[in-house]
Amino acid sequence: MRRKKTSKTKLFFKILGYTLVTVILLSIALTVYSVFGPKEDFTTPIMGNYAIIKENSRSAYIINSKSATPETPVVKSIVISYATSGKFIAAKQTAVPETDDIKPDYTTYNYWLINTTDDQIYGPLTSDDDFNAKCQELQLDFQEWLGT
């Protein structure tokens, strides 16, 4: 009888040992993958060749991926929301604070309009009245604004 308990105890510790080794190896593998694995893509396609790139809360900008310099922003940070209407993209942009200690002021912003067919950019439009006047001139109606 004593012999069976010993073999069961050995089996238990053997399984426990294999489980611990497996967990440790899996943890090491996941750590290595998180450090050296592929980087997350923070690109959100909007329309045509245009996309928003959001790297963090202080960096959200619009690029044209088919331009001669796709890494150069069409609308610089911080784009706080955008909308589309026909062939146009509208973007609201607030200023990036000078230091990381200061939070962005989301109550003041400029508008930008981008014609996606000929890449013409209107902006910065510094007031709601300027933006609405330009939208009426171009016969644009932006219904739904999406946050970045």
Protein model, in words:
The protein is an alpha+beta fold. The strands form 2 sheets. Strands 7-6-5-4-8 form a 5-stranded antiparallel beta sheet. The mean pLDDT is 88. The N and C termini lie far apart (69 Å). The longest helix has 35 residues, at 2-36. It has 2 helices and 8 strands. The protein folds into 2 domains: 1-38; 43-147, no CATH class.
List keywords for this structure.
148 residues; alpha+beta; 3-stranded antiparallel beta sheet; 30% strand; elongated
How do the strands and helices of this protein lay out in sequence?
Layout (H helix, E strand, L loop, with lengths): L1 H35 L6 E5 L2 E7 L2 E6 L14 E7 L2 E6 L16 E6 L5 E5 L2 H11 L7 E2 L1
Antiparallel strand pairs: 1-2, 2-3, 4-5, 4-8, 5-6, 6-7
Short description:
This protein is α+β, with helices and mostly antiparallel strands. 31% of the residues lie in helices and 30% in strands. It has two domains: 1-38; 43-147, no CATH class.
